[in-house]
Amino acid sequence: LFGYEKGAFTGAVQACPGKFEQAQSGTLLLDEITEMDLALQAKLLRVLQEREVERLGGRKNIKLDVRVIATSNRDLRKAVERGEFREDLYYRLNVFPITWRPLSERPGDIVPLAEHLISRHAANQNLGTVKLSAAARNKLSQYTWPGNVRELENVVQRALILCEGGLVDSGDLMIDMAVHSEMEMQVEPDDNSKLGSELRQQEHQIILDTLALCNGKRKDVAEKLGISPRTLRYKLARMREDGIEVPA
């Protein structure tokens, strides 16, 4: 974010400008600002107040001309009250706030958003034209999407792995699996589990297909599936215990 000078730490073989410098005379987007720890928030506050940045290991301040946009899916005011976000940084950022309603309050946007995400990811994966069936549209519209656009995007990416013939059908939308929290996902399912035997098999196949798509790169697989690397490791271990051959 702030850059560093050559020799600032082991491996710093050359100077590197930070994101603020790279955004000079432009706009810098700070996504999910509430995930930033308090120490980093203090450094960010100083940069915003002084309009200058000092690289790690550097001795001079670099003047900045950068517009900053910060986003969060949490209530910043409540984060301040809980001591999770600095109040002074909150007021520094809160110059022109825009509150966007959740998908649950914008049902008419769900299908168009899903179609946009399908087109984008299908193009990135060279899948050609992929459409939504009427049943898939209906299923998307009826769900409340507590995870908003990120959850919708995860469901779309899974659907592109499962769908055939360029058509995403209702059965390709793994919405029930997507709504489980990571804690729930790490609990070993029993015979009465909501996942059920059939859904577990589908989940295993999705993981195997994604491993092949990402050439076995675990980090990329976790990101594409919308789970943490730790959860992915757990799932792969359980798959091996179930006798499923998992690529190294």
UniProtKB/TrEMBL annotation:
Pfam families attached to this UniProt entry: AAA_lid_14 (PF25601), HTH_8 (PF02954), Sigma54_activat (PF00158)
PROSITE patterns named among the record's database cross-references: SIGMA54_INTERACT_3 (PS00688), SIGMA54_INTERACT_4 (PS50045)
Cross-referenced InterPro entries: AAA_lid_NorR, Homeodomain-like_sf, HTH_Fis, P-loop_NTPase, Sigma_54_int, Sigma_54_int_dom_CS
GO BP annotations listed: regulation of DNA-templated transcription
An example molecular function term from Gene Ontology annotations: sequence-specific DNA binding
Keywords: ATP-binding, DNA-binding, Nucleotide-binding, Transcription, Transcription regulation
Domain called Sigma-54 factor interaction: residue spans: 1-161
Name of the molecule in the record: Sigma-54-dependent Fis family transcriptional regulator
Lineage, highest ranks first: Bacteria, Pseudomonadati, Pseudomonadota, Gammaproteobacteria, Alteromonadales
